[in-house]
Design brief:
Layout lengths: L1 H26 L2 E2 L2 H5 L4 E11 L2 E10 L8 E4 L31 H21 L5 H4 L1 H4 L11 E4 L7 E7 L4 E4 L2 H11 L11 E6 L20 H4 L6 E4 L2
Parallel strand pairs: 5-7, 8-9
Antiparallel strand pairs: 1-2, 2-3, 3-4, 6-7, 6-8
């Protein structure tokens, strides 16, 4: 086992040197310092380069993890604020460039990096032109949760599968919020999950279930319920919440 680890380590170091030469000669790359890598987690090596797309320059980090060369390098935008502005950009700035099941030859590290950077450039070109904007719709479930705070309390719903907007009801606990068609259904469900008793001082409020015909683009994601439905349009109650079908 020790001998195998030594061989893998030697292979990794040789391939990193090859990638380093490629990035320096083609992108004037700067090797990230140990201090910079310490903020990246389980990263063995990394570089900062610039990619030109449609006349604009983008800072890009090429990071090699501990699983390399059996796992491809990861490509990150230096400016993570493009998350939800460009498709396929995670909160951290990581670019999703290949399917999860994609495989690469560990014997061709330079070609692997070149392919990923070509994909990154094309992603930036398409994003600037807006030609891949529909990816926000076709892959909606990948983006919708991404704009929520990390400690958001989950929403559960026991609603009938009806394609219509309507008044429903909700209860908020310390660990989750429940939406139900009626007050009685809400009370019964909470009672069952709470061991046969209702929480002390339990209050159930009206809510609005909004059925949308198509998913939203990130530009239209609401940050508060007031951005979705004006209270005057639906219910004159300050405790009203809004739930969409997504």
């Amino acid at each position: 086992m020790a001998e195998r680890s030594k061989i893998v380590q030697q292979l990794r170091e040789e391939q990193i040197r090859e990638i380093n030469e490629f990035l320096i000669s083609n992108f004037s790359a700067r090797l990230l310092t140990d201090h910079e890598l310490a903020h990246e987690g389980r990263i063995f090596a990394g570089w900062l380069i610039e990619i030109s797309a449609d006349g604009r320059q983008f800072g890009v980090r090429v990071l090699i993890g501990r699983e390399f060369p059996f796992h491809p390098p990861e490509i990150y935008l230096q400016d993570a604020s493009y998350h939800l502005k460009f498709p396929h950009v995670e909160k951290t700035g990581k670019l999703c460039l290949t399917p999860v099941q994609a495989s690469f030859s560990p014997a061709r590290p330079k070609q692997m990096v070149k392919y990923l950077l070509d994909q990154a450039r094309q992603l930036l070109v398409d994003s600037l032109a807006g030609t891949n904007r529909e990816d926000f719709i076709t892959e909606f479930q990948s983006y919708w949760p991404g704009h929520l705070p990390e400690k958001t309390v989950p929403f559960y719903r026991i609603l009938e599968p009806k394609e219509e907007s309507r008044i429903v009801h909700y209860w908020s606990g310390s660990t989750f919020t429940l939406f139900a068609e009626t007050i009685a259904e809400c009370r019964e469900w909470v009672k069952n999950i709470n061991g046969g008793s209702l929480p002390k001082g339990m209050e159930i409020y009206p809510s609005v279930f909004v059925w949308l015909q198509t998913p939203l683009y990130p530009d239209d994601y609401p940050m508060t319920t007031q951005l979705q439905v004006r209270p005057s349009d639906v219910w004159h109650n300050r405790r009203t919440r809004t739930l969409t079908n997504f």
